[in-house]
């Protein structure tokens, strides 16, 4: 498994632990982070992504997602 594949699987699995909506914005695209297929087509290289998290466990989800992105050296900004 490549590093990219490992990152995608871990990001998706982590997102699925939360009931909040977790959406990744890149350019004008919005991808549900819980969708592995969506991540495969979007998560490439050195881009900067913006994460939108809304729901009852949003704060915990934001912290967990930030940790996973950093672990895999992916640049992400958490939207307020």
Automatic annotation (TrEMBL):
InterPro entries: HPr-like (IPR000032), HPr-like_sf (IPR035895)
Domain HPr, chain residue ranges per copy: 10-70
Pfam families: PTS-HPr
Span of the signal peptide: none
Protein name: HPr family phosphocarrier protein
Organism the protein comes from: Marinicrinis sediminis
């Amino acid at each position: 498994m490549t590093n990219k594949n490992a990152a995608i699987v871990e990001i998706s699995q982590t997102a699925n632990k939360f009931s909040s909506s977790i959406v990744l914005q890149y350019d004008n695209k919005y991808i549900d982070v819980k969708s592995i297929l969506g991540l495969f087509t979007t998560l490439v290289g050195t881009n900067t992504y913006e994460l939108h998290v809304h729901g009852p466990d949003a704060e915990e989800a934001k912290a967990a997602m930030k940790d996973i992105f950093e672990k895999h050296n992916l640049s992400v900004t958490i939207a307020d």
